[in-house]
Design brief:
Elements (H helix, E strand, L loop, with lengths): L20 H8 L2 H14 L5 H7 L11
């Protein structure tokens, strides 16, 4: 499962100057190439939504982990 936010693909978003260095690094480095990497994932792999994934899983054979 994965989640993407629109800001993950926006290299022109305003930079927040007050963010700590590591947060800036994680938030802004690589934005210029992120959409191309996303397109590569879409081209190279098959994806399904949660409803389809639920149908594909054999829940009787799936191990359950107690936390």
């Amino acid at each position: 499962m994965t989640y993407f936010h629109t800001r993950d693909f926006d290299p022109d978003q305003p930079m927040i100057p007050s963010l700590p260095f590591m947060r800036k690094f994680k938030s802004y480095v690589g934005l210029s190439t992120s959409f191309a990497k996303f397109q590569k994932l879409l081209n190279n792999y098959d994806f399904v939504n949660m409803v389809e994934a639920d149908k594909l899983i054999d829940w009787e054979k799936t191990r359950i982990f107690e936390l």
